[in-house]
Amino acid sequence: QVQVVESGGGLVQAGGSLRLSCAASGRTFTMGWFRQAPGKEREFVAAISWSGGITLYADSVKGRFTISREYAKNTVSLQMNSLKPEDTAVYYCALTREGTATLRQGKSDYWGQGTQVTVSS
After folding, report:
1. Torsion of the alpha carbons at 89, 92, 98 and 99, rounded to the nearest 10
2. Which long-range contacts (CB under 8 A, 24 or more apart) does 51-55 make?
3. DSSP 104
4. How many helices (H) and strands (E) does the chain have?
5. What is the pLDDT of residue 82?
6. Which of 26-35, 40-49, 87-96 has the lowest mean pLDDT?
């Protein structure tokens, strides 16, 4: 059974930064992040291929968020800068055996438990 553990959420003022991390057990996967705000559907945020050579971002976070991975620890991180109140949501780490395009559609093999990010105005 693959374990997915997220960390790094919290409360920050608008314009601030946070860094989320996700550690996965087992093999190397395509990894990414989704988020779900209250009353809204879960939406794609970013994804990175198993090689690290391909990254995808939602238009709403391009230029502000950066996804990266560390192979030695089998982790993926999401550096979030210039945060806005509309970034407030529960952020979920997602893993798939397929590619980034598949993950972007929400077709994940494994999900983390979620970590809360709150951006105050």
Report:
1. 40
2. 54/99, 54/100, 55/100
3. H
4. 1, 11
5. 98
6. 26-35
Cβ neighbours for 42, distance < 8 A, ≥ 6 positions apart? 34, 35, 36, 92, 106
Higher pLDDT: 10 or 28? It is 10
Residue 21 DSSP SS3: strand
Q: Which tokens belong to 96?
A: 């798939």
Quickly tell me which residue has 């009353």 as its tokens.
Answer: 39
> Three-state DSSP class for 34?
strand
Question: Each residue of 31-74: pLDDT tens digit?
Answer: 999 999 999 999 999 999 998 899 999 999 999 999 999 888 88
Whole-angstrom Cα distance, residue 63 to residue 20?
17
Q: Where is pLDDT greater, at 26 or 58? A: 58
